Amino acid sequence: MEGTPSPFTVVSPKRALKYLVLLLCLLGIAAIALIYFLVRNAPAPVNFPVGSPVTIEEGSSISEIVDTLHQSGVVRSSLLLYTIILTKYSPQDIKASQYVFDKPYNVFEVADKLATGDFTSNLVRVTHREGERVTELATAVHAALPNISEADFIAAALPHEGTLFPETYFLPPHFTADDVIKTLHDKYEEFMIPKRGTIAASGLTEDEVIILASIIEREANDPESMGMVSGILQNRLRDGMPLQADASIEYMLDKPLEELTPEDLKIDSPYNTYLNRGLPPTPIGNPGAASIGAVLEPTPSDYYFYITGNDGVFYYATTYEDHKRNIARYLR
Q: What does the alpha-carbon distance between residue 53 and residue 113 come to, in Å, rounded to a whole number?
């Protein structure tokens, strides 16, 4: 009808071309952003946890699984892994298990491995116990990886004594001594990074923390005694007293604590903490989380002496006279 406006708006060819160009520009920007996102987040993270177990609990949702893998350093982006799993796989395909990676995987490979569950084929288990020294660790490494001789491992690992983090590792059978050392040291770095602010405020250097923790590891036997022994040793350090730690003599002589003699305590060595004030020059083993924590959070007390009685209980003393009474009462 004349005078009635048309319900359709006619767009001129020039304006239509402008809209088309704008749409193509937006699609191009989106494509560039997607490519940038993939390039940035698809590769394996720099500190990918090779050889370290990552546990996916039974009954975990897909979002919980991808968050666990992101927090464990397996993927750079939980969003990208989540999207890949939902678009390429069925959530029912994802296996709950303890996963161990024998090399760094990109996010697409991680998603595929999650669906197949094939993470531990051909890997060997090496357990590095808290307080264990390099010479002891070498035996476990050689037993699991016969291609690495104990002598070669000791020679390569000894300069890293103290910074090879105690843990159970699953390692590829082709690993060299340097590969094993890097894996254990990377785990140490992962543990220590959030501790370094506390260390800086403690008045101790990181080396001093690790040396002291390595002594505590072998002098104490549970978190409570570790805290007490740490406080006592730090009291002695503060007041310029020798530590008088049998564990440093044990390390020096490679001799069990129960076999130490009074003559051993007179041997001239920088590891003899009866003759020398301060800390020994290097760690005497590889401390774990509890002993490092005990150094950074010692139990405060007025004690300067301790013994482990024949009953396995720790006894503490403020004065040397009280200490001698504890010895007479609980060690004889």
A: 14
Q: Where are the alpha helices (DSSP H) in 102-203?
A: 107-116, 134-144, 150-157, 177-192, 196-202
Contact between 316 and 301 under an 8 Å Cβ cutoff? The reply is: yes
> 141 and 151 in contact (C-beta within 8 Å)?
no
- Output the CA–CA distances (angstroms, integers) from residue 212 to 135, 184, 250, 260, in the order listed: 19, 20, 15, 21
pLDDT single digits (tens) 198-237 = 999 999 999 999 999 999 999 998 999 999 999 999 999 9
| Higher pLDDT, residue 96 or 143 | 143
On whether the CB atoms of residues 62 and 91 are closer than 8 A, the answer is: yes
pLDDT recorded at residue 1:
47
* Cβ within 8 Å of residue 253, ≥6 positions away: 260, 264, 267
Structure tokens at 311: 């009953």
For 106-163, what is each residue's pLDDT tens digit?
888 888 888 876 655 567 889 999 999 999 999 999 999 999 999 999 999 999 999 9
How, if at all, do strands 167-171 and 305-308 pair? unpaired
| Cβ atoms of 50 and 103 closer than 8 Å | yes
Nearest to 161 by CA among 287, 254, 253, 49: 287
What secondary structure, in 3-state letters, does 289-323 show? HHHHHHHHCCCCCCCCEEEECCCCCEEEECCHHHH
Count Cβ atoms within 10 A of the Cβ of residue 313 and give its class: 0-12 exposed, 13-18 middle, 19 or more buried: exposed
* Average of per-residue pLDDT values in the chain: 86
User: How far apart are alpha carbons 190 and 163 in whole angstroms?
Assistant: 11
The conformation of residue 285, written as its DSSP 8-state character, comes to S
What distance in Å separates the CA atoms of residue 230 and residue 213, rounded to the nearest whole number?
A: 8
